[in-house]
Design goal:
about 575 residues; alpha/beta; ABC transporter transmembrane region fold; Rossmann fold; 6-stranded mixed β-sheet; 4-stranded antiparallel β-sheet; about 60% helix
Length: about 575
């Protein structure tokens, strides 16, 4: 429970103090409720006397009424957290998760499946907020009230009290066993649910591929296997807990029968009155309630703990540290000095002893085979990761000394694979600078050649692009991405092969948009087609994580090295065509 409480306080975030206060109110209310049940014992004892002392009887009735009213007021204050703070806790937790995902090292983020993160931010947060607002106070009530009533029963008659003590002694191992089974079961269930969610996301995003390969619908083996694993996990969890649950319910019934048997024996022996036995029976029934509800409560708490654990794992991820001495860059050249970098879990370095400079307002192209280190350069510039050795600087400032938000304020990135939101074209462009005016957004759109295709659409810039921009062509999506970057107007632009997947016609239009984007900027471009970077101020040739050549296009051709070989191979590929006799 200490661990669950810690996770609850972590998830409650800025509302943790209010949550603690609610728990204190719940404890006080539960004590008052137990006292209210306890008043039945002296009340019934008075009513059993002959003649009845009406004054004393009414006194106990008054005490009972006061306790009930006080408890009602406390429960009202207790419930305020549920009604007033539940949605606030939910919204704040999701915001904090979003912030942590944004600041999380890219390697850590890459290990987490999209469906799993969807579960964390969605159902897990809802379950955690419910646990904080409802389960916690219910648990306090179901523990505090029976514990106090058990003490009362012991005070009335130690023999009947011992029956309840014996029931608790037997119940504790069963509860621990049930909790252990539920814990294991819900971890399997939680993992299976996350895997199923990931497969659903994968299925929706890759539906075209599944259709093309005949694996859509009932033929989707990956999706069917995930659902089968999910069903098996749920079934195993339910079966494994069934015996302890049945044993616990049998124990509760046996304990109540034993208590009534002992009580009847005491009544027949004239050591206990019938009204007092009835009062003890009421207290004992309330005492036994949490034991009978333990199975359900255990499952609920294990579900809540699984959700809280998932949330805690994300919130506990350490951000990339920000070193001291950071200052806002006043120039925007980029330098790598003796940089070594290896991706986590890989023995081979992605970059070894790399040093180079990207001049301010210049265009530097990175070329080389796949896996040579080109994309790693852009990831280190944007601090998606930090090098193990060496320093990356922007305008002479170590990027590791800049908060991520400050660093990315100076950098615009255009990726090869464009992600558009299921919103209007206007809204997608505005992502570059949300506070921009409509006129500024339209100006960026024109500069990126977006206007040329938007003006043909019936709803113009208010046209929705569909999920991931599915209603647009690759070239159109790329132009919207470039419009975002133009609108952001950052002094540094990183281009990750923005035209490599486009046809010739689209490439020409997109290249014109890129020309408008990079004017007067510090530009780093990862190039697949060497013909697109022949005018670069410098070209860096990467191979196996090292810069093996650098210079302008003509200089590199004259050196007759790796770059010249790549150029010759690409120029030769232009002569390739498919004919009846094969490539010619």
């Amino acid at each position: 429970m200490k661990r669950i409480r810690r996770l609850m306080l972590l998830a409650a975030g800025p509302y943790a103090a209010r949550f603690r206060a609610t728990l204190r109110i719940s404890v006080i209310a539960s004590v008052v409720q137990a006292l209210a049940y306890a008043t039945f014992i002296p009340l019934l004892a008075v009513l059993a006397t002959d003649p009845v002392d009406t004054g004393t009887a009414w006194l106990w009735v008054g005490v009972l009424v006061v306790l009930v009213i006080v408890e009602g007021g406390l429960r009202l204050r207790e419930s305020a957290f549920t009604f007033d703070y539940w949605h606030l806790v939910t919204g704040d937790t999701r915001t904090r998760l979003g912030d942590r995902l944004r600041s999380m090292p890219q390697q850590e983020l890459g290990r987490r499946a999209a469906g799993d993160l969807t579960m964390v931010v969605g159902p897990s947060v809802t379950s955690a907020a419910t646990a904080i607002s409802s389960f916690s106070t219910l648990f306090v009530q179901l523990v505090t009230v029976p514990a106090l009533l058990g003490v009362v029963v012991l005070a009335v008659d130690w023999r009947m009290g011992l029956v309840l003590v014996a029931a608790v002694i037997v119940a504790v191992p069963l509860l621990r066993r049930l909790r252990s089974l539920s814990n294991q079961g819900f971890r399997r269930v939680d993992k299976a649910d996350g895997s199923a969610a990931s497969r659903i996301v994968e299925y929706v995003q890759g539906l075209a591929v599944f259709k093309a390969t005949g694996q859509a619908g009932a033929s989707s083996t990956r999706l069917a296997r995930a659902f089968a694993d999910q069903h098996a996990a749920h079934a195993t969890s339910n079966r494994s807990a069934s015996i302890p649950v049945a044993a616990l319910q049998f124990l509760v019934q046996t304990a109540l029968i034993a208590l009534l048997t002992v009580g009847m024996a005491l009544v027949l022996d004239a050591r206990l009155t019938v009204p007092l036995l009835l009062a003890v029976a009421v207290a004992a029934a309330r005492f036994a309630e949490p034991l009978s509800a333990a199975a359900t409560m255990t499952k609920l708490f294990e579900m809540a703990e699984a959700s809280l654990t998932r949330i805690g794992e994300v919130l506990d991820v350490r951000e990339l540290p920000v070193r001291d001495g950071g200052r806002t860059p006043t120039s925007f050249d980029i330098t790598f000095t003796d940089v070594d970098f290896a991706y986590e879990g890989r023995e081979e370095c992605a970059m070894r002893g790399v040093s180079f400079e990207v001049p301010e307002r210049g265009l530097t192209a990175l070329v080389g085979p796949s896996g040579s280190g080109k994309t790693t350069v852009t990831r280190l510039i944007t601090r998606f990761a930090d090098p193990q050795e060496g320093v990356v600087r922007l305008g002479g400032v170590d990027v590791a000394s800049l908060p991520p938000v400050e660093l990315m304020r100076h950098i615009a990135v255009v990726f090869q694979d464009v992600y558009l939101f299921d919103d209007t074209i206007l809204a997608n462009i505005a992502m570059g600078r949300p506070e921009a005016t409509r006129d500024e957004i339209l100006a960026a759109a024109r500069a990126a050649n977006v206007h040329t295709f938007v003006e043909r659409l019936p709803q113009g810039y208010d046209t929705r692009v569909g999920e991931i921009g599915s209603s647009l062509s690759g070239g159109e999506r790329q132009r919207i991405s470039i419009a975002r970057a133009i609108l952001k107007d950052a002094p540094v632009v990183l281009l990750d092969e923005p035209t490599s997947a486009l046809d010739t016609e689209s490439e020409v239009v997109v290249q014109q948009a890129i020309d408008n984007l990079v004017t007067g900027k510090t530009v780093v471009v990862i190039a697949h087609r060497l013909s697109t970077v022949i005018g670069a101020d410098q070209i860096l040739v990467f191979e196996r994580g090292e810069v093996i050549q650098r210079g302008k296009h003509t200089e590199l051709l004259e050196r007759d090295g790796r770059y010249a070989d790549m150029w010759t191979a690409q120029e030769g590929a232009k002569e390739w065509r498919l004919g009846a006799s094969g490539p010619v």
